[in-house]
Specification:
The complex is a heterodimer of chains A (117) and B (112). With 117 residues, chain A is an all-beta fold. Helices cover 0% and strands 51% of the residues of chain A. Chain A has no helices and eleven strands. Chain A has strands spanning 4-5, 10-14, 19-25, 32-38, 45-51, 56-59, 62-67, 72-77, 86-93, 106-107, 111-116. Chain A starts with a strand and ends with a strand. Chain B has no helices and eleven strands. In chain B, the strands form two sheets. In chain B, strands 2, 4, 5, 6, 9, 10 and 11 form a seven-stranded mixed beta sheet that branches. Chain B is globular, with a radius of gyration of 13 Å. Classes of the chains: A mainly beta (117), B mainly beta (112). Chain A binds chain B through residues 4, 34, 36, 41-47, 49, 89, 91, 98-110, and chain B through 4, 30-31, 33, 40-45, 48, 50, 55-56, 59, 91, 93, 95, 97-106.
Chain lengths: 117, 112
């Protein structure tokens, strides 16, 4: 059973508008959440993260919201740009460990974002 | 180099063949992870090293999979007697500690 779910396999947005990517998780022991962006033939690139003690983290055009009671997080991209077109993975870490690193991450299946000019 | 380097980028193996995949992490990064990404799926954890110590290998799918990092830098993932279900992209990531991992571009393994 998937512990991290991204129920939308794809999303299409007009340039300049907001992109909202959603992620649900089932394990209440997760305490750290991350978003990765992946272009074809490249490895995932870290985008933004949030600790379970927060409900919002913002970095430029990217904001991640965490709703612990609903076990839901979302990534907002405002304004969306064509260069944002990629697959976005939500990931969760069950613990902080391994000398401060996040430990092994559990990934969702990804959402393919297309931003149209 | 500046990033995580993986080789080869592509590997085609005949079923039953042994393969070795290499990962050069960012210099000085203590933590090294291997992930397997099947088509249409997210990456799935295979194993973790802290320096040369393999602290977690719970994600290795069978005893045909073996990973090592003998000197705490370069790591090799070996798959013995490859099977078709082993076809996937194998991703290596390294980390200095806090913050997100840096992933390599991966090795795409196709078993025919």
């Amino acid at each position: 059973d998937q512990q991290v779910k991204q129920n939308s396999p794809s999303l299409s947005v007009q340039e300049g508008r907001i992109s909202i990517l959603n992620c649900d998780y089932t394990n209440s022991m997760f305490d750290y959440f991350l978003w990765y962006k992946k272009y074809p033939a490249e490895g995932p690139t870290f985008l933004i993260s949030i600790s379970s003690i927060k409900d919002k983290n913002e970095d430029g055009r990217f904001t991640v919201f965490l709703n612990k009671s609903a076990k839901h997080l979302s990534l907002h991209i405002v304004p969306s740009q064509p260069g944002d077109s990629a697959v976005y993975f939500c990931a969760a870490s069950p613990r902080r460990g391994y000398g401060g690193s996040q430990g092994n991450l559990i990934f969702g299946k990804g959402t393919k974002l297309s931003v149209k000019p | 180099g500046a990033g995580v380097s993986q080789s080869p980028r592509y590997k085609v193996a005949k079923r039953g063949q042994d393969v070795a995949l290499r990962c050069d992490p960012i210099s000085g990064h203590v933590s090294l992870f291997w992930y397997q990404q099947a088509l249409g799926q997210g990456p799935e954890f295979l194993t973790y090293f802290q320096n040369e110590a393999q602290l977690d290998k719970s994600g290795l799918p069978s005893d045909r999979f073996f990973a090592e990092r003998p000197e705490g830098s370069v790591s090799t993932l070996k798959i013995q007697r490859t099977q078709q279900e082993d076809s996937a992209v194998y991703l290596c990531a390294s980390s200095s500690g806090a913050g997100g991992y840096t992933f390599g571009s991966g090795t795409r393994l196709t078993v025919v």
